[in-house]
Design goal:
The structure is a homotetramer.
Chain A lengths: L6 H11 L1 H6 L2 E6 L2 E6 L6 E2 L3 E2 L1 H20 L6 E9 L8 E10 L3 E10 L8 E8 L3 H4 L1
Antiparallel strand pairs in A: 1-2, 2-6, 3-4, 5-8, 6-7, 7-8
Helix pairs in contact in A: 1-3
Chain lengths: ~140, ~140, ~140, ~140
């Protein structure tokens, strides 16, 4: 397993592509073999009642971290699409930049299965949500 | 099983509470015993590359429909929190108002388990994503 | 969507293949377009403490019903493999034959996504567990 | 977080309770703070076509490892019940003793959320399946 793109290249691809992510200024902080970390800079729209980070924001962080991991390892595979996502909410996430870290559970030819841990920079050592998800990967024979 | 709140009351509670949902003008279209339907009016920020409805938007629709269902049956149980969400993306969702319909799989004392089907009004008969999720419910004994 | 195999043919394929299922005498009760129902005849080994049907038994029923659905629609695609399974346990299942009913959420070229409802014949109208799962499908180009 | 029971005590509780597990001779190999490892000794009934470990066997290993983790930390909480299980199958598992290792993602008052990794002793460094699951915990107020 090795990398096809660095963090800056992954970030450029994601920002170009995603209206929503581009608006929030998603940052790809680090990519290395079998690891990607993204940051969603804090903004008030991320909060739900009780001033905790909302579920959709945590979903976005998980999905973005997984997508960054796939892009870094496969190159500009913009056709990779989320097939499913399983999110578990573990603790209240205090207002702060939202961090998503993803690793591969499996990188197959047709499916990438990943795990992500989500946290807030307001309390960096606390995992506030855990996700596993799979992406369907474009395959050579699909384009033959 | 019977209802504690009607659609207008549920909508008022959700809009008051959720910055993000309030901004988008979430509509609670219908609540009845064991059913809730919400609508997220279309806006460009919902799209991802290829002009399809994004994953976070579908997550929001699933979560909002489930929350509306819980509110309608339990009253203003604002302490109900999403415990987990499993989302399966089935088809590309064309630009349009996003519809979420939720039913109970189980309404227990401590946990509500729900199922949601998501679609776009651009293609109303096509389920574009399916979700199951659980909410932890506040219980009397917790506050005793 | 139409059928490639009837219930008897599906049952023969599953029984031939699965040591565990064969032992328990799994019955494919019905297959039709977008529907399969299997029965695991009751035996004491299915019980866990409290005399309720065990989790592994319900998993087996969900997986068998989904596999029967795939076989009925795709023919003897013995290479189809479970990619993931999400099971929610809703109620205690009393001792009795275990019934699994599966439908498609999506039948794609590469992935079949299905939903299954599990019940016990001791209390036929009560859904005791709900499952969604996906199967990776063998594709022509894989064998080219 | 500390332990209420050691591996031998956990094993005795599980074997007493579970007909199916008792039959297969489940071994609780290790429990320590935030970790439990169980072993299902290999037997032919675990195999599915292609001579790989079956899905129900991997489900059993995940569920048993999580249950052992809960028992070790909470004592003989035999009323703890699996609420949901999400299993991802990553690789073919060759015939061999099946190992399940579980950790907590969250140990709350009402819900324990856990992660498990499954492998076969035939190929110990290969994770063949990954699971996350939640258990509903009995609470004092339920028995008041």
């Amino acid at each position: 397993m090795d990398l096809k793109l660095d963090a800056a290249a992954v970030q450029a691809l994601i920002r170009d592509g995603l209206v929503a992510a581009g608006r929030g200024g998603l940052v790809v902080e680090e990519v290395r073999v079998n690891y990607a970390r993204i940051c969603l800079p804090f903004e008030d729209g991320m909060l739900r009642p009780g001033r905790v980070i909302s579920g959709p924001t945590l979903f976005t962080a998980a999905d973005s971290a997984m997508y960054a991991l796939v892009l870094a390892h496969l190159g500009p595979a913009l056709m990779a699409v989320t097939s499913d996502m399983n999110l578990r909410f573990l603790a209240k996430a205090r207002p702060g930049d939202v961090i998503g870290e993803a690793i591969f559970l499996k990188l197959g030819r047709r499916l990438a299965v990943m795990e992500a841990r989500l946290s807030s920079r307001a309390e960096p050592d606390r995992i506030v949500a855990h996700a596993t998800g799979s992406y369907a990967l474009p395959i050579a024979s699909d384009h033959a």
